């Protein structure tokens, strides 16, 4: 199935009325002239405005009237008031500028869709801290770190944009996100269908919850990535865990590991589980950014980094 057909299928699934009349914005998204050699680097990097919107800390309760400033970015170079659209990035767990500069798809399609790009920062990340520097110092403050509150933030921000930007009121909004942000984009379409005409949820593990998906599925996918990258790759990693255990049983083995891995301080036997967790996270991150093009998302990496490793 081609990329255009896949986009149309996805968007029509997310828009219940699409079998009757596919909205122009969704039709345009499904027939984009996408680049044959995609890149993670945006065509117009950093060409955006940094803005703030006052949000309620609690959208659903009555015990606090406290507010905070949510940061969001707007790029409107290609936006047209007539026939345009709004692509709304549902920010995930990190600084929104980081995601903005590594979400090439939105920048690639902005001109063709005559789109305004909006990147909304998730509460408790970047500069969008409901309790400022104390946001993580009191566990009671974390009561408001939920996906429900984040989705309500996005809804309020979209209402603000449509109310205050001339020409935006009747423009279709499409939610876009990846990973956890993709989950948010899909949930946003489900919970606020009157606010977005569709959602594009990339690499979004929307079923990854206890009792829905077996816990080991994610690591099986990671293992498959390494297995496909070359002969004996995944098996070599599997054998490395036992090799680390064996070496860590002796002082000379710990010293060898410290030197071979260029560690900052000498390893002790108590450090071994932390070391293995750190190495495991490295393999997981490589699998997640095993893109067919060079990327700077987590670190400067070549195309297909697993094969290059």
Molecular structure report:
This protein is an alpha/beta fold. It has 2 domains: 49-202, 3-Layer(aba) Sandwich (Rossmann fold); 216-307, Four Helix Bundle (Hemerythrin (Met), subunit A), CATH 1.20.120.980. The protein is 40% helix and 13% strand. The protein has 11 helices and 6 strands. It has a 6-stranded mixed β-sheet with strand order 1-2-4-3-5-6, with helices on both faces. Helix 6 links the parallel strand 5 (173-178) and strand 6 (198-202). Helix 1 (3-14) runs antiparallel to helix 2. The two termini are 31 Å apart.
Category from helices, strands and their pairing: alpha/beta
Task: Report how far the terminal alpha carbons are from each other.
Answer: 31 Å
- Give the spatial strand order of the biggest sheet: 1-2-4-3-5-6
Q: What form results from the Cα inertia axes?
A: globular
Figure out the total of helices: 11
Percent in strands: 5-15%
- The succession of helices and strands, N to C, reads HHEEEHHEHEHEHHHHH
Please give the CATH architecture of the largest domain.
3-Layer(aba) Sandwich
Largest sheet: 6 strands, mixed
Q: Which residues sit in consecutive blocks of at least 5 with pLDDT less than 50? A: 1-21
Mean pLDDT: 88
CATH topology heading of the largest domain: Rossmann fold
Going by CATH, what is the homologous superfamily of the largest domain? Answer: Alpha/Beta hydrolase fold, catalytic domain
Rg over CA atoms, rounded to whole Å, is 22 Å
CATH class wording of the largest domain: Alpha Beta
Structural domain count: 2
Number of strands: 6
């Amino acid at each position: 199935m081609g990329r255009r057909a896949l986009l149309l299928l996805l968007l029509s699934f997310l828009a219940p009325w699409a079998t009757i009349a596919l909205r122009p914005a969704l039709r345009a998204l499904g027939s984009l002239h996408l680049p044959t050699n995609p890149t993670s680097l945006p065509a117009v990097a950093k060409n955006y405005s940094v803005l703030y919107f006052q949000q309620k800390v609690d959208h659903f309760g009555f015990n606090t009237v406290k507010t905070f400033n949510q940061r969001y970015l707007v790029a409107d170079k290609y936006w047209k008031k007539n026939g345009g659209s709004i692509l709304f990035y549902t920010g995930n767990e990190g600084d929104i500028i980081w995601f903005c500069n590594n979400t090439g798809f939105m920048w690639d399609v902005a001109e063709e869709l005559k789109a305004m790009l909006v990147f909304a920062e998730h509460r408790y990340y970047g500069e969008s801290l409901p309790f400022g520097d104390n946001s993580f110092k009191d566990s009671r403050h974390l009561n408001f770190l939920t996906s429900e509150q984040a989705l309500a933030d996005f809804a309020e921000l979209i209402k603000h944009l449509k109310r205050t930007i001339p020409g935006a009121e009747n423009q279709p909004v499409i939610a876009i996100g990846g990973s956890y942000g993709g989950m948010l984009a899909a949930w946003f379409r489900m919970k606020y269908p009157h606010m977005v005409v569709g959602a594009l949820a990339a690499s979004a593990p929307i079923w990854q919850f206890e009792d829905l998906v077996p816990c080991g599925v994610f690591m099986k996918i990671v293992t498959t990535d390494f297995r496909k990258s070359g002969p004996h790759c995944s098996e070599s990693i599997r054998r490395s865990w036992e090799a680390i255990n064996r070496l860590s049983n002796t002082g000379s083995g710990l010293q060898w590991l410290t030197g071979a891995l260029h560690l900052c301080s000498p390893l002790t036997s108590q450090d071994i589980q932390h070391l293995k967790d750190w190495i495991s996270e490295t393999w997981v991150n490589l699998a997640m950014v095993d893109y067919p093009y060079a990327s700077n998302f987590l670190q400067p990496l070549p195309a297909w980094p697993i094969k290059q490793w």
